[in-house]
Amino acid sequence: MRRIAAKFWRTNDWVLHHDNARPHTAYIVQESLAKNKMAVVPYSPYSPDLAPCDFFLFPKMKIKLKGRRFDTIEELQEETQTVLNTLTNKHFQDEFEKWEKRWDRCMRFQGDYFEGDGAE
Q1: Phi, psi angle pair for 39, to nearest 5°
Q2: How far apart are the first and last CA of the chain?
Q3: Partner of 101 at 20 to 30 A CA spacing, among 16, 49, 66, 119?
Q4: Where are the alpha helices (DSSP H) in 26-72?
């Protein structure tokens, strides 16, 4: 994975999507991104519609772990890793395509919340 990320960094063939958390919007971060000519996808403030963990990863984890009891943190970590290992490149590609549609819709609605209204 690191080799793939390094290739994209060298060729500038990718964009960064992050939220508006203070560490991400800090001057030093913005300065570094600009210096490296990093394209940043606009992010609507406080928009849960665009957080992949909220609409992709966490729901998958909940489905697989629902109703289970774990005696130790290690047992929970092991089962979580097992669930993560079942995700394929196709899962991520499909979710990325859904994310693109969500991002477009979010930008068209100027950041208004649209989760749960059949928006996909």
Answers
A1: -75, 130
A2: 29
A3: 66
A4: 27-35, 52, 58-65
What does pTM read for this prediction? 0.55
pLDDT at 112 over 80: no
Q: Indicate the DSSP class of residue 80.
A: H
d(CA 115, CA 47) in angstroms, rounded, equals: 10
> Quick one: DSSP state of residue 53?
I
Can you tell me which residue has the tokens 């994209």?
8
Q: What are the tokens at 65?
A: 């772990």
Domain ranges within the chain, ordered by starting residue: 1-41, 46-120
Number of alpha helices (DSSP H) and beta strands (DSSP E) in the chain: 7, 2
